[in-house]
Each structure stands twice: as structure tokens, then as C-alpha cells.
Amino acid sequence: MENIYTLPDLKYGYKDLEPYISEEQLKIHHLKHHQTYVSNANALLEKLDKARKDNSEIDIKSTLKDLSFNVGGHVLHSYFWDNMKPIKKDNAPSGKLLEKIKVDFGSFERFKAEFGKSALSVEGSGWSALSYCKKHDKLLIAQIEKHNANLYPDFKIILVLDVFEHAYYLDYKNERAKFIEGFWNVVNWEEVERRM
């Protein structure tokens, strides 16, 4: 069976997010951790395909849970890489995205505070995500545990922040709050607005 998932290339160099994310941190996160989710997802799909062809039994519950974790990890990391770009002075959203943030959160600072608290309070490993409901024209923040998406159905993810320790430990040790603060300097707001 041909691999379905592949590791995406970054749209910037490994040094380009410094000093907020170091070259070493970004390389390990992208080339090791993300690649592991890709490899595991492909192996699990192959396992399912083989069991179906051989008409053999597998533990479907654990296999599908593992598949969800690894595919979720791949998709969320792919969003995460595109959510960032090299540093830009006065990095903030503009246009329709900024107006929508002001309507739904009151101000950009209030949004940053809520999103940051969401990321800081994820229990263990997971993500903070901003999602958008086109039907009701509404932005909502969600926490994602591990990679299993505890999301609002039909709400499109437009911004994610990985708060697994592997995303920041080399640079920030156990200071997740400092990592979150640094993240705002490299957010690719144009990509977030495009997704919305």
C-alpha cells in the first residue's frame, strides 16, 4: 500500500522563527515528532488494509483510536506550521479577521488573553484552537486534548497552537506561558484570515 500521508515542507527555514522558536527545536518538532505521526498513520492504515484483505481480526477500537491520534497529529501539525511565518514587526491581524475578532471577543487583546489561557490550561498535552462557524459567522476557542479533536462540529479550525512539551521544551523548559507569549510574534495572520 502506498503511503497516504507525507510530511509537509515548511514554508520557511528552520532558523527563520528565531528567537521565538530555535532551529534545533523546530527541526526536532518537524522532522522527528511530526514525521512519527505520519509514519504511524500510514502503518495503521496498512494494518487495517491487510486485515481487510486477509479477513483477519484486529482490535478495531484501539487501532482506530491510534489512527485518530496519529492522523489528528499530522493534520494539526500541518496547520501549525502554516500558522507561522518569519517575524514581522507589529505582528497583528488586520482587515476582516481583526474586525471579526473585535466583534466576537471585544478586542484583539481580549482574544489573545482568552486564547493564551486556553493554551496554558490544557491538561497535559494538547492544543488551543481558534475555529470559525461560517453558518453563524462566529469565532470560538477550543482546547484539544492530545490530538483527539474535541471540537465544535462543522467549525473550521483557523489557528492552532501546539502545547505538547515537545513543541517548546528545548527553548522554554517548563515555562509554557513564555512559549505562548513568543508565539504571537510569529503568527501568520494572513493564513488565519485565508482559512476563515
The order of strands across the largest sheet is: 2-1-3
Q: Portion of residues in helices?
A: 40-55%
Major pleated sheet: 3 strands, antiparallel
How do the helices and strands follow one another from N- to C-terminus?
A: HHHHEEEHHH
The end-to-end span amounts to: 35 Å
Number of helices: 7
Class computed from helices, strands and strand pairing: mainly alpha
Quantity of strands, as a count: 3
Shape: globular
- Give the C-alpha Rg: 18 Å
CATH superfamily membership of the largest domain, which one?
Answer: Iron/manganese superoxide dismutase, C-terminal domain
**Beta-sheet strand percentage?**
5-15%
CATH topology label of the largest domain: minor pseudopilin epsh fold
Average pLDDT score: 94
What is the CATH architecture term of the largest domain?
3-Layer(bab) Sandwich
- Oligomeric state of the chains in view: single chain
Summed up:
This protein is mainly alpha-helical and 196 residues long. The protein contains 7 helices and 3 strands, in the order ααααβββααα.
Labels describing this entry:
196 residues; Helix Hairpins; minor pseudopilin epsh fold; 2 domains; 50% helix; globular
Description:
With 196 residues, the protein is mainly alpha-helical. It folds into two domains: 23-82, Fe,Mn superoxide dismutase (SOD) domain (Helix Hairpins, Orthogonal Bundle); 95-195, minor pseudopilin epsh fold, CATH 3.55.40.20. The protein has helices at 23-54, 60-82, 95-105, 108-120, 169-172, 176-183, 189-195; strands at 126-133, 138-145, 156-162. It has a three-stranded antiparallel β-sheet. A hairpin with a 4-residue loop joins strand 1 (126-133) and strand 2 (138-145). The longest helix has 32 residues, at 23-54. The radius of gyration is 18 Å and the shape is globular. 24% of the residues are buried. The model has no long low-confidence stretch (mean pLDDT 94).
